[in-house]
Amino acid sequence: MTGPARDFGRLVERARQLLAAGGRRMLGITGPPGAGKSRLAERLVAELGPGAALVGLDGFHLADAELRRLGLRERKGAPETFDRPGYVALLRRLRTETGMVYAPVFDRTLEDSIAAAVGVRPETGLVITEGNYLLHWPEVRPLLDEVWYLDPPADQRRTGLLQRHVAFGKSAEQARDWVARSDERNAELIAAGRPLADQLLDWGDW
Questions:
Q1: What is the Cα–Cα distance from 128 to 25, expressed in whole angstroms?
Q2: Nearest to 147 by CA among 184, 181, 196
Q3: Tens digits of per-residue pLDDT, 2-28?
Q4: Radius of gyration over alpha carbons of the chain, in Å?
Q5: Is the pLDDT of residue 114 over 70?
Q6: Where are the domains of the chain?
Q7: CATH number of 4-199
Q8: Helices (H) and strands (E) in the chain, counts
Q9: Is the pLDDT at 81 greater than 80, yes or no?
Q10: Does an H or E element contain 92, and which?
Q11: What is each CA distance from 52 to 37, 102, 106, 146, in whole angstroms?
């Protein structure tokens, strides 16, 4: 694992190298809640153009109705609140299938996933997948060519999380409670995988 990086241009260059390597490559971006994974992944795909596609783990959130049935709605975002086998199956399809592969996306305004919302074309050379548990679930790592761990200072990350929760409908008090009770608990689990990353990225304006 290399040291911290802040140079977005260098990250784009490394992603271009993966894209140019031939075949289909898979790049994972992980880190604790609020680290900026989605934003970095989106910027990379925008820079790389049609040869790259983004598939997020968040599309595999269990639906709120199912979480309530299981008694897990207040733990949404924890490892057990995702369709883990479904996500792993999609990564395997992306590695092996030659046709169009569709993936779900998570809509924060709905707080739910939308099936088959992203199409990964046969000619896509680099799939970027981002999410919390890429290094926590051992069956995921062998399916990825590289994994980058985004590791911003905890105070800045928590501030961003609070702002995001409020922006999507929580009160300030509810946001503080959710961050302390759920997000930070998940962050501790995710941090255990940090030494397994190929690249450590500190806070940057992704």
A1: 9
A2: 196
A3: 444 568 999 999 999 999 999 999 999
A4: 16
A5: yes
A6: 4-199
A7: 3.40.50.300
A8: 7, 8
A9: yes
A10: helix 84-96
A11: 16, 14, 19, 15
